[in-house]
């Protein structure tokens, strides 16, 4: 499997700052933040599946534009994988005819441009040789992370989450883990805000990484624009022994 980072920022503000989205091979998105808009029309038309971690706008904002752009070019619906709770939020608050048309009914309910598939924790979706499994996350809305397994190696993306013992119980069972992408949304001076919004800061990142029993390359995502350098310095101070690296747009990870 091949993961290309389309966006990994906690906000926007320049050509290198795009919100969360990862392109897997050429046909799968993990989240659909603003980075999806940098793909060409040809690349957009190849996307068949979107796996959503949660319903916050920075992770779903490109879905309405994507389906509107390529729906008529496709012979089958774009499939959105999400938990029941997240699907209900998307239906009620995004694809609700008030914010955006309901593309699960366009051009008809029998042949829509978009289709939802419900997922649940621990339930593996297999797409060819690729296995994608939702993992526990602790956020302010229903949320998951994802375990991506090519058969040869695995990558874990935590999604947006605060401290989360349940995640590490699952991750530590992954014998072929190669990459871990974990969020750190706030600096230590904003620890109270991080805890309130169920995100990590460098101090809590270090506490979480101490629970990892496996050797993996660790990448940090979701840092706030304007806070990237001080946050990375704090990560080096608090969690440097884990050798975390900053995730960057267009980075490609193969596993």
Written description of the protein model:
The protein has 255 residues and is an alpha/beta fold. The protein has a single domain (2-254), classed as Ribonuclease Z/Hydroxyacylglutathione hydrolase-like (Metallo-beta-lactamase, Chain A). It is built from eight helices and 14 strands. It has helices at 41-45, 57-60, 63-70, 84-93, 165-171, 191-196, 202-209, 228-239, and strands at 2-7, 21-24, 28-30, 49-51, 78-83, 114-119, 125-127, 130-136, 144-149, 154-157, 177-183, 217-221, 245-246, 252-254. The strands form two sheets. A seven-stranded mixed β-sheet has the order 6-5-4-3-2-1-14. It has a seven-stranded mixed β-sheet with strand order 7-8-9-10-11-12-13, with helices on one face. Strand 9 and strand 10 form a beta hairpin. Helix 7 runs parallel beside helix 8 (228-239). The radius of gyration is 18 Å and the shape is globular. The N and C termini lie close together (5 Å). The mean pLDDT is 97.
